[in-house]
Amino acid sequence: MEWEGGRRSGNIEDRRGLGPVGIAGGGIGAVVLAAIGYFVFGIDPRTTMDVAQGLQQPAQQQGARGEVSDRDGQFIDVIETSNREVWTPIFQREGVEYRPPEAIVLYKEATGTGCGTGQSAMGPFYCPADQKVYLDLSFWRELEGRFGAKGEFARAYVVSHEIGHHVQHLLGADQQARRLGARGQESGSVRLELQADCYAGVWAAHAGEASGGRIVINRSDVQDGLGAAAAVGDDTLQKQTQGQVVPDSFTHGTSAQRMRWFSRGYEQGDPSACDTFSAASL
Ligand SMILES: [Zn+2]
Questions:
Q1: Residue 125 belongs to what H/E stretch?
Q2: Which residues contact 259 (CB under 8 A, 6 or more apart)?
Q3: Residue 83 Cα, ligand 1 centroid: separation in angstroms?
Q4: GO CC annotations (predicted)?
C-alpha cells in the first residue's frame, strides 16, 4: 500500500501526551466497558454504553487538534481524509452532505469519551454520541502479533471499518439495528458490524481513484485486509481465547462473514450492496 503522498486534513485529536484519565473517575463503568470490549476490535460502543449509562461518566478530555508529526499518526490522518474523498461524492449522489467524524482521537491506555471511559483493551471503536473514533495505536501491535494480521492495509481496514460506523450513524443504520434488537431479533449488532466491513470495502474500492493516485492499493493489500477480517471474526477470536465457539455471543460476525462482506463492498464499490439488514443470509 502506498499512502505517504495522500492528502491529510489534520482531523486528529492527539491525547497521547496526556496521562490515562478516566479510570479513577470512570470507576465501575471503566471495568464493565473493558470486560465487554475485551479482545474485540470495533465493538459497537452502544452495546457497552447501555450498560455504562447511569454509571459515573468520565471527565471529558481535550487533546491537541490538528496535524501530527509522527508517521503512525499521519497514516491515520491520510486514511480519514481518504474516506472523506470516497464518501463525499457517494453522499452527494444521494443529495446528502457527508460530514466527517468529529475527530480521530489517538490516546494511550484510557480516555474519557462521550460513551463512557474508553480503554485500549476494547480495541478501536466509534462513539456515536460525540461522533469520534477512538484508537490506541498499541492495537497495531496486537493486530500483527496476536491476530497475525500484517501490513498497513490491515490497519487501514480497521480505521475505515470504524469510519464505516460513522457513515452508519449519519444514515441512521444504527437506529435500525437498535430497533431490530428491541424486537428481540438476533444479530442486529452483527448486521451493523458486517455493514461496516462492507463500507470498508467500498472505501478500498475507490480510495486510489478518489485520491488522484496518491494512494495505491494493490491486490496483495486487499488480501491483507481479508486476512485481518478473518483474524478478528468472532469465531476465530473465541477459539483463541476460550478454545471453543459460542455462536450466541457473536457480535461482529464470523471470519467467513466478515471476509464476505468486506469483499462484497470492495468488488461492487457501492454502499447499496452493503444492505446487511435486508440480506436473507449473512
Ligand atoms: Zn465495528
A1: strand 125-127
A2: 226, 229, 230, 233
A3: 16
A4: membrane
pLDDT in tens, 173-232: 877 777 776 565 556 788 888 999 999 999 999 999 999 999 999 999 999 888 888 887
Q: What letter does residue 133 receive in the DSSP assignment?
A: E
Q: How many angstroms separate the alpha carbon of residue 191 from the centre of ligand 1? A: 10
Cα-to-centroid distance, 252 and ligand 1 (Å): 7
> In the numeric block, which cell numbers belong to residue 89?
461524492
How far away, in angstroms, is 161 Cα from ligand 1 center? 6
Distance CA 205, CA 267 (A): 7
- CB 86 within 8 Å of CB 57: no
DSSP letter for each residue of 64-91 = EES---SHHHHHHHHHHHHHHHHHHHHH
